[in-house]
User: What shape does this take?
Amino acid sequence: MSNDTVGVDRTGERLKKEANHVPSSGRFYKSNDPHKNMRLTDCCAATSTHMDDGSDGWVLCCKHCYHTVDVGEGDGNEYLTKYWEERAFNV
Ligand SMILES: [Zn+2]
Assistant: This one.
């Protein structure tokens, strides 16, 4: 299959392939340093950034598709080890 017409990949398929995926949670984690095992955005397996929402504050957005994401997705607040720790406590 030819990839001649590849445009902007808004679904992050390439990023998802490069990331560590935990199928049970649907979450993606960074597979390489720096910040290895840092949680990435659910939508694109990308990092996120805070952007002005134009009214009363800042929202966390996926750097790849610019949709808003939850705290912990790609902002460095959540790591894979933390996820597994939480799982262990909840069993
Ligand atoms: Zn995204």
In short: The mean pLDDT is 85.
